């Protein structure tokens, strides 16, 4: 990668990790094995948060909140038919569902 090109995804993930953890230090292998796994988990948690918010907003899931614990999500059985229809009409993995 030359100095004028946009960084690829791996480069961005490494940089994000070090921005969040400016005191971190590790070897190439350590970064590849542990730090990027950490970055993947961080990104997946954020993606999951967005997906759960959408599912709750669409009433496919219910969210129960109580003081001192994280929210708990449950399937809304009244939306079973709508959920099955959504999944049948969804685009292949990696694309947003047809809504």
Q: State the distance separating the first and last CA atoms.
A: 39 Å
Alpha plus pi helix count: 3
Q: Which word captures the global form?
A: elongated
Strand content: 5-15%
Overall mean pLDDT:
86
Estimate percent helicity. Answer: 40-55%
Sequence of strands across the biggest β-sheet:
1-2
List key phrases describing it.
99 residues; alpha+beta; 2 domains; two-stranded antiparallel ribbon; 3 helices; 2 strands; 53% helix
Overview of this protein structure:
The protein has 3 helices and 2 strands; from the N terminus they run ααββα. It has 99 residues and is α+β, with helices and mostly antiparallel strands. The chain has 2 domains: 8-57, no CATH class; 60-99, no CATH class. β1 and β2 form a beta hairpin.
Summary of the model, kept short:
This protein is α+β, with helices and mostly antiparallel strands and 99 residues long.
Write the layout of secondary structure elements.
Elements: H1 9-20, H2 28-57, E1 61-66, E2 69-75, H3 80-89
Antiparallel strand pairs: 1-2
Helix pairs in contact: 1-2
């Amino acid at each position: 990668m030359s100095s004028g090109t946009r960084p690829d995804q791996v480069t961005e993930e490494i940089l994000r990790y070090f921005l969040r953890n400016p005191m971190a230090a590790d070897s190439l292998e350590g970064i590849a094995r542990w730090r990027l796994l950490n970055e993947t988990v961080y990104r997946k948690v954020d993606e999951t948060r967005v997906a759960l918010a959408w599912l709750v907003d669409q009433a496919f899931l219910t969210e129960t909140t109580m003081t001192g614990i994280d929210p708990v999500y449950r399937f809304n059985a009244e939306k079973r038919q709508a959920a099955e229809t959504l999944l049948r009409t969804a685009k292949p993995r990696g694309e947003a569902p047809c809504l």
